């Protein structure tokens, strides 16, 4: 790890004003320090944001929930409002990392964690995400864990977060504060596809601080399910994950949310498939048709063809669980 | 990362004063910003119970309790622990009286080489403080952040299952 200056501001404004192109905010540190130890990132200045007043949950006037960026992943997953009203989010968080890491990891930091592509983590090889223009060894190399949707010639990495898959399904809104003032970003627009700038994971500017994540009132508590498929039963990143949420009127689907993790550079949400599901009856055929539609443009690489089959089955299972069991059976 | 106070550092990188409660005693220390809590404990304070298995949050051997919650000391900056109350495996016993979790690990022979044990025990005390695990399946899932290369998992789980009610009665706080 390189030497750096350290500051701990106690107001949001001060934090934003301290930031520069060579600084980083640090919250839980579970991703940033990991990367710094490998010299993959070498900030000159760390701005410790854990003294900022962003560690609480509150209710919004519309009946939603505002989550401070510093709320830990564990506190969020086990908060009574989240367990009861947004069980999909609880499930997704608890499927990720380990209890120790969830105690440390923050809500804001989880959104900004970087890919787990093994070439990205190996400073001795090229990588367009790490050094733009140097090449992508994953495309022609080992790509079992890489993207099957929305990838580009330049980068086939996936976004590793579980929490973000649920937040995308729940239509969360990201609140940020920069030198130019506050703004909000719809969750679906927050992360980017790699395109020809894979070094940029998301829309956040250098001086911008995530302050809150807002959940709208609809939590799909009756019918939702997070399914994560990984190489071992716990404490591993997703090969494929599915956040499924339904609103049902008897057997008929009134609203549907369907988001995939582990398959693209961002949580993969397909609104056309969601709209198609509305008005359909709950059945295996319906869910299989939805899965086929969602995956019709999948472009597997040499080693991750299995992800297409896996995703298809996972979608059907997650939607079935959501419809039949409901998300409250944790 | 092995930077310590003795290493030559540019003048602009000054040590930061921190104050923490470590295993019950108040300590005032000077730390460089890039020193992890694990390196502070092991290299500067000679508390070598907490182990460095991976140094990347992947194994749990470095687990300690911060304000009663289990964390990975290898991914924590010491400077960010200013004001915290920390407990390491060295601070769990009450004088000569072992913590109930330590006694259960001995009773169930919950180790082979012992390298993962301090982290397992601290993690298990953190698990008790959380009060979430019910039954052996949940114990296994909520102990998944602690790997054991010797594969002593069954005995570890049995020890924890045994000790949980005792720890929860006493509030579990070390
Ligand atoms: C071994 C291991 C296994 C893991 N497994 C999983 C898993 O299965 N699923 C999963 O989803 N995650 C997993 N994780 C990742 C973990 O969830 C993230 O590392 C964590 O959520 C990051 O949060 P943090 O607060 O520690 O971020 P930090 O490391 O503090 O910061 C990460 C980045 O976000 C920036 N940042 C932090 N907060 C803000 C803010 N408020 N505003 C602007 N920028 C900010 C920092 O500058 C930095 O660039 C795993 C991590 C490890 C080490
Ligand atoms: S997939 Fe992306 S992150 Fe991985 S090596 Fe290629 S450019 Fe780098
Ligand atoms: S040494 Fe910290 S988790 Fe392995
Ligand atoms: S007892 Fe040897 S690693 Fe666990």
UniProtKB/TrEMBL annotation, chain A:
The keyword Flavoprotein applies. It comes from the Bacteria. This is Xanthine dehydrogenase family protein subunit M. Keywords: FAD, Flavoprotein. The keyword Transcription does not apply. PANTHER family: OXIDOREDUCTASE, XANTHINE DEHYDROGENASE SUBUNIT C-RELATED. Coiled coil: none annotated. InterPro entries: CO_DH_flav_C (IPR005107), CO_DH_flav_C_dom_sf (IPR036683), Diverse_Substr_Oxidored (IPR051312), FAD-bd_PCMH (IPR016166), FAD-bd_PCMH-like_sf (IPR036318), FAD-bd_PCMH_sub1 (IPR016167), FAD-bd_PCMH_sub2 (IPR016169), Mopterin_DH_FAD-bd (IPR002346). Residues 1-220 form the FAD-binding PCMH-type domain.
From TrEMBL, chain B:
Coiled coil: none annotated. Keywords: Iron, Metal-binding, Oxidoreductase. It holds the Pfam family Fer2. It comes from the Bacteria. Gene3D superfamilies: 3.10.20.30, [2Fe-2S]-binding domain (1.10.150.120). Residues 16-92 form the 2Fe-2S ferredoxin-type domain. The keyword Oxidoreductase applies. InterPro entries: 2Fe-2S-bd, 2Fe-2S-bd_dom_sf, 2Fe-2S_ferredoxin-like_sf, 2Fe-2S_ferredoxin-type, 2Fe2S_fd_BS, Aldehyde_Oxdr_Iron-Sulfur, Beta-grasp_dom_sf. This is (2Fe-2S)-binding protein. It comes from Pseudomonas agronomica.
